[in-house]
Amino acid sequence: MTVQNDIQHKMNMAAVNGARAINPGPASGARAPAIINTTDGARKDFSAIFSEASDRNKAAGIKISKHAELRLSQRNISLTGAQKGKIADALAKAESKGVKDALVMIDGFAVVANARSKTIITAANAEDLKSNIFTNIDGALFA
User: Fold this and answer.
1) Which residues pair with 44 in a beta bridge?
2) Higher pLDDT, 14 or 122
3) pTM of the entire structure?
């Protein structure tokens, strides 16, 4: 799950469970940190949620471009930590073979990623795979 998707998911789940984001900013106009009620009933600072999601992406060893975040969101693809780990492993293998840009097939969807920078460039779900031609890749892997 991308950082943006993870945050949006937590906010959506909070809304579904009757919670709401609270920002009691002071009257002087200065901004106080946004506090979000999470699904487990805890209250967390928005920046803490953002930081946790960012740390999970860094731990997996991959980055997700803004374009890829948009495509993942549009196509309802949520990357789990295990999937990110598999993609990172596939990209390491691709880089060791001299691949620069790789198509990685995983769990019924695909990502195109730069092997050297470990950055996901775009993503396609099963429906998009049927009618898509992938260009500017020099390797394909199944993770």
Assistant:
1) 36
2) 122
3) 0.59
